Amino acid sequence: MRKHDPDVPEVYLEPGESRVVRGPVVLKTVLGSCVGVAFRIPRLGVGALCHPMLPNSAAKRTPELSHYDGRRYVDFAIRELAKEFDKLGATREETQVKLFGGADVFSTGKEASKLAVGKMNGERALEVLMEEGFSVMASSLGGNAGIHIEFHTGTGEVLLRRLQRTHHSKSKASRVDRG
User: Which stretches of 24-170 are DSSP H helices?
Assistant: First the structure.
């Protein structure tokens, strides 16, 4: 990502948060086993990022599950954003989607469990996006280290920095193509 204009606001998302913005904004977050789903609707000047932590809200689906609590779950967060985009008049075909995270950050070097939460988060995100009619244009899922992402909603560019397992190592940065 090119150095962005200092007038472009930056917003950091914590785990379990979602944000929908109008106009250029840089949405940032750090992902481990969580997933980050970036949405961009150029015609409307809308971008969004969600940072859910767990795959399914169905087990927690009770009248007490608030909108705030629901955003911690992959299925809930994606479906809630889809509803917001529908209200704005966006079509699924024009909505650009990029998916990140889902790492097995707790791996001990032995064969990773098939039930690792990162893997489940990534798989569930792909399922729900498909069920909702979205196509994923770029993704970086899995691995065994966390990542830092910066999503520029105005250009669609995503800067992805892989975090090293040791705090003394430098991280590697890469750019996910514009869309």
Answer: 67-70, 74-88, 117-131
Q: Which domains does the chain have, with CATH numbers?
A: 10-176 (3.30.1330.200)
Residue 165 has pLDDT above 50, yes or no: yes
Non-local (6+) Cβ contacts of 146 within 8 A are 30, 31, 32, 103, 105, 162, 163
CA 61 to CA 71: how far, in whole Å?
Answer: 12
The dihedral of CA 130, 132, 138, 141: what is its sign? Answer: negative
Query: Stretch 130-156: mean pLDDT, rounded?
Result: 96
On whether the CB atoms of residues 40 and 138 are closer than 8 A, the answer is no
Flag whether pLDDT at 154 surpasses 80.
yes
CB-based burial label for 75 (10 Å; 0-12, 13-18, 19+): buried
Let me know: does 48 contact 19? Beta carbons within 8 Å: yes
Show the tokens assigned to 87. Answer: 């209200």
Summary mean pLDDT of the chain: 86
Q: By percentage, how much of the chain surpasses pLDDT 90?
A: 68
- Say which DSSP state 57 is in: S
**58: number of Cβ within 10 Å:** 9
